[in-house]
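SUBJECT: protein chain
CONTENTS: sequence, C-alpha cells:
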Amino acid sequence: MNIPDQNKQSHYQLWLCSLVDIEQLAPQYRHWLSAAEITKVNAYATQGKQQRALLVRIFVRYILSLYCHKLPQELLFLYDINGKPQLIQNPLSNNVQFNISHSGDYLLVGVSCTNESASLGVDIEQIKLRTNINEISSHFFHPNEQSKLEVLPSALQRQYFFQLWCLKEARLKATGQGLSQSLASFEVDVSLAEIINVRQLANNQLRFFSSSVSETHWSTIAGIINSHYCFALCAQTPIVMDALDCHWLDIHSLTAIA
C-alpha cells in the first residue's frame, strides 16, 4: 500500500474501508485498542455489532498510524464537548485532522495532514428505498433545497436527497457542532449532471459531483459509490480534486500488511 504523501499543501485524503467479512477479523488486532475502546465495543448487544465496532476502530488506528509514524496501539485520542475525536499529537509534527463515518458495508475516513489546522468532516449514507425523503426534507432541509428536490424527476429525487443529507452532515461534523446547529439553517447543493471525476477502488466506482455550501469559507465534494451509497467531504480549506487521494482498505489487505 502507498504511504500517504504528506508534502502536498491543502491536501485531503479519503479512505474507503470494507466492513464485510468481519468474521475473518484476526484477534491479534484487539490489543491496538485502549481499555475504554474495548469497553465501548463490548457494550454492543450482538457479536456482529461488536465485531463491526472493533473493525472500525482497528481501521481508524491503522490509517492514522501511517500519518503519525507510530504504531496503531500508540495513538492517543481526546474528545471535544460534542464527542468529535481528535488525535493527541506532537506539537512539532504536522497537524493530522480526521473524521469518520460508516453506513452499511462501508467505513469512510477523511484525513488532512498539513502544517496548519484544517478541520474536515465526512459522511456516508446507504441509499435506502424505505426512507421517507419528503417527510424528512420538510423538517430538516432549507426551503431552497426542498424546492429543488420537489421539481426533480422522481428517478433522481432519492439520490439528490441523500447527497444533500451527506453534505449537511459533513458540514456539521467539520465544525464539530453536530446536531446542535439546525440542518435547515444553511444551504447546500449538488449537480448530479456534472460528474467532475471518477475513481476506481478495487470493485468500487466512485463518481464525484460538483457541490457547494452557502458559507463560502467551506469547500465540499460529493459523490456516489456503485449507485448504492452517497458520501461527502467538507473542509476548511479548498479541496483540489486532482490532489485528492483515495485509498481502499479491507480486512484482507490489512492482514497482509500488519
